[in-house]
Amino acid sequence: PKGAFYAFPDVSAFNGKKTPKGNVIDGDASLCEYLIEDAQVAVVPGAAFYAPGYIRLSYATSQANIEKGLHRMAAALQNLK
How far apart are the first and last CA of the chain? Predict the structure, then answer.
């Protein structure tokens, strides 16, 4: 995006999925909690910005850190059933 260093992807497709520990993702806040615990990636619930169902990703860091975080997120999200 131009003029900012945040992206807001829609993550509502993960609602209702279960984590490997059996917890149900019931919104963007629980998905953020799962990502910090499982993938060690900190993201912010979109609901904090009046955008429930989305998460806020900051890309104000190095390309290497962005790639590392995205790989961790992808692996964690693939573990949701």
Answer: 31
Phi, psi of 54 (to 5 degrees): -120, 165
81 residues of the chain, pLDDT tens digit each: 566 789 999 999 999 999 999 999 999 999 999 999 999 999 999 999 999 999 999 989 999 999 999 999 999 999 999
Query: Apex CA 27: angle with CA 64 and CA 74, to 5°?
Result: 30
Q: Got the DSSP string for the chain?
A: -TT-SEE--B-GGGTT-B-TTS-B--SHHHHHHHIIIII----EEGGGGT-TTBEEEE--S-HHHHHHHHHHHHHHHHT--
